[in-house]
Write a structure and sequence with these properties.
The chain is mostly helical. The protein contains 19 helices and two strands. The chain starts with 16 loop residues before the first helix and ends with a helix.
């Protein structure tokens, strides 16, 4: 007799072959998933420590950053600082005022080069004359993600930093996210184009790299801190003649962008947009809070810092960036073909020189304001892992620097802590010495 089902009283059908195969396939799949999960778990330490997995960790963090930026925009209040002033400044240009001495906003006169006017002029129109703050925030979130992708590509090319360090770089800094999506400063826009230029330098597209480097300078001139290192790289890689041609690209772009303003008032444009002697307010300083205000404002103090800056650059140029002790060879008009391959710069040499050049400038800066953190934040991991400091010290330096930049208003203790961390890193970079191509090749083999 056929078997009777207890629920319906109907005869139960035997399982078909298809159902059996499906059950078997699902069982096999679950075993494979479990096996793969165990393998991934076993590989986690390697993924966290091996720089060759940078692309994997970077991809995961990039996805998390999308969610994080949207969350910050929707849940954290926007704080107005300079956005309205930016819009007022570019509105003056849109209304036909090209004299830089006449352009100003609520926070003071326009003090940025012409590229700033064009970039924020576009944002002025996109955001409804600057009124749509939420849209501007999402645009800046997009700019942040593009910049982060460019930064990750640099780290993937150099393979120096363990991937776990990127967790701190991406997810641990409230200040950096605030600078982008809660403050809408122009500093991160300039840094985006700076990192674009570095990627082009890594690909040996020196002409295009110089073009976008110059465009970054035209948004904010802090990017000039990379210039000493860039000049040395150009001379090393290309010789004097080709270097002059690349510098002409930089100067030519500045000239073209500034034509409307130079025709109106050339002196006014140069005085306002490239004012290297501009005085900073003591109330905003992050790095010199422990000084008396009169000393902070003293011109002799500023000249002393400039002298130390130039001396440090000269020392690194001669003893650390001087590839194979051939500094005088940089003055050759051209690099001979037989030495062309030998003179080629590695990715680590390019990045190390540029990042260190910028860092030296920040160490001896007359003042650092909170938005200036983005000038070197994404370079800190590379610089720290370029040294022989113990990992615990590297992480401690990152943590103390983050603490100092998040202390508002700055205190004597936070400023001193920041200088101590800068000094530790600068000395460690000096002690480490030059990153040679041979060292890079050995690391890749390992």
């Amino acid at each position: 007799m056929p078997a009777i089902s207890s629920s319906s009283g109907r005869p139960s059908r035997p399982k078909s072959k298809e159902s059996f195969k499906l059950s078997k396939a699902l069982s096999k799949m679950s075993r494979n998933v479990l096996k793969t999960s165990k393998e991934i778990y076993k590989e986690l330490p390697r993924v966290a420590l091996d720089p060759t997995y940078t692309w994997l960790v970077a991809g995961l963090l990039f996805c998390l950053e999308i969610v994080l930026n949207v969350f910050i925009i929707l849940r954290v209040n926007y704080t107005e600082i300079d956005w309205v002033a930016y819009m007022q400044e570019v509105e003056g240009v849109i209304n036909g005022t090209y004299d830089y001495m006449q352009l100003r906003g609520d926070t003071g006169p326009l003090v940025y080069p012409a590229g700033f006017v064009y970039v924020f002029g576009v944002l002025y129109y996109i955001t409804g004359h600057g009124a749509n703050i939420r849209l501007a925030q999402f645009i800046f979130a997009g700019l942040y993600l593009v910049m982060l992708g460019l930064v990750f590509r640099i780290y993937n090319r150099t393979l120096k930093v363990p991937p776990y360090a990127f967790l701190f770089m991406c997810l641990a800094s409230y200040r950096i996210h605030s600078i982008f999506v809660l403050r809408l400063f122009n500093d991160p826009v300039a840094m985006l184009f700076l990192y674009l230029s570095i990627n082009l330098f890594l690909d040996k597209h020196w002409a295009w790299g110089c073009f976008w480097y110059s465009f970054a300078v035209s948004i904010k001139m802090n990017v000039l801190l990379f210039a000493p290192g860039l000049l040395l790289l150009l001379l090393t890689e290309l010789g004097v003649v080709k270097t002059v041609a690349r510098l002409a690209i930089c100067a030519g772009l500045q000239l073209v962008l500034a034509i409307p303003f130079l025709l109106e008032n050339p002196v006014g444009y140069m005085v306002r947009s490239f004012d290297l002697g501009r005085q900073f307010f003591f109330i905003w300083t992050v790095n010199w809070r422990f000084l008396p205000e009169d000393l902070f404002l003293n011109r002799y103090f500023h000249l002393s810092l400039l002298g130390l800056h130039l001396a440090a650059l000269a020392m690194f140029a001669v003893y650390r960036w001087n590839k194979k002790n051939r500094l005088l060879g940089l003055l050759r008009l051209e690099v001979p073909e037989k030495e062309e391959e030998e003179s080629k710069l590695s990715s680590n040499e390019i990045v190390s020189v540029l990042f260190t050049s910028n860092f030296i400038g920040l160490c001896f800066s007359r003042s650092l304001h909170y938005q200036f953190y983005v000038w070197y934040y994404h370079t800190l991991n590379y610089l720290l892992w370029s040294t022989d400091l113990p990992t615990v010290v590297r992480l401690l330096v990152l943590g103390v620097i983050e603490m100092a930049w998040n202390t508002y208003p700055s205190t004597v203790e936070s400023s001193i802590s920041l200088h101590v961390c800068h000094l530790v890193l600068l000395v460690a970079l000096w002690v480490k010495g030059h990153v040679s191509q041979t060292e890079v090749k050995v690391k890749k083999v390992k």
